[in-house]
Amino acid sequence: GLRAVHAKTRLAQSRLLRVSGRLTQEADDRDALLGLPIHGIPAAHFNDLFDATPVTPEMERLARTVRRAARGVTDLEPKAFLDGVRAHATVNALLERHGADAITIECLFLKHRKPCLSFALNNGALVPCGCENDLNASLSLMLGAALFGRGGFQHNPEFDTERNRYFASHCTCTTRLHGPRGPDAVYDLRPFFHQLPKSLALDVQWPAGERATLFKLQTAKRTIDAWRGTVVDSPACPPTGGCATRVLVEFDGVADVCSVYSGPHPILYCGDFAKHAKVFA
Fold first, then answer.
1. What 3-state class would DSSP assign to 49?
2. Of 44, 51, 60, 185, which one has the greatest count of Cβ atoms within 10 A?
3. By CB neighbour count within 10 A (0-12 exposed, 13-18 middle, 19+ buried), where does 66 fall?
4. Residues 6 or more apart whose Cβ sits within 8 Å of residue 67
5. CB 105 within 8 A of CB 43
6. Residue whose C-alpha is closest to residue 124's, from 53, 187, 60
7. Under a CB-based contact definition with an 8 Å cutoff, are residues 117 and 91 in contact?
């Protein structure tokens, strides 16, 4: 109960930064349900700052650390690592510049500037970062960080109707599945597959047998969806490509796995937090 009160208060005192290719100038808004301010900036601000950001020795050390800790590296050039850490520096600089606690970026068409690595690192440190300028997903990540104390995996939902299993896939999963002080999960590094050039993305291996929570806040509907399940495994990436991280989950007491669909980009958490969500609601 106290954690739920804390989460509501913390979100009301937070600020979300939205980076959109559809904006030509900065704009302000506010979420009616949670009360937090939302500040929008054009994607050109991100691109210009990235292009003006040189690679520093500290960035090179981070790139080496990320590479050394990976179980394997597939089809990535050295430039992809440097672009990844430059994007991380750009994301953090924008958060500081605009006094924001979280960020979401319309990221699919940023070319080599994609912030997949940055989002993975920041979500693990409980600095919520949402893909594709998706407001509900970003607010869900913010709420989950405050309510569960863990970074979530924003993903595309798919369904194995033959085995009644849920399949989550995307490219920005944190390795800190058990929170900022937890151990890093095993991960590989492979390209972001949807557009060229081949930018860096993390293929995080979720531990089989762990409990998991599928979570989605829908502010317009004043609804929270939360489902308990168990991780089956992280299926191997097919040779033809696809989203880097993939997780297969079996939900408790769900007769038809398709019934859990709550729209695009729900958030998957490692751990059982369904009660937390219910208390908050």
1. helix
2. 185
3. buried
4. 73, 81, 189
5. yes
6. 187
7. no
Rg of the chain (C-alpha set): 18
Distance CA 229, CA 125 (A): 24
Beta-ladder partners of 204: 187
| Tens of pLDDT, residue by residue, the chain (281 residues) | 999 999 999 999 999 999 999 999 999 999 999 999 999 999 999 999 999 999 999 999 999 999 999 999 999 999 999 999 999 999 999 999 999 999 999 988 899 999 999 999 999 999 999 999 999 999 999 999 999 999 999 999 999 999 999 999 998 999 999 999 999 999 999 987 766 788 999 999 999 999 999 999 999 999 999 999 999 999 987 766 668 899 999 999 999 999 999 999 999 999 999 999 999 99
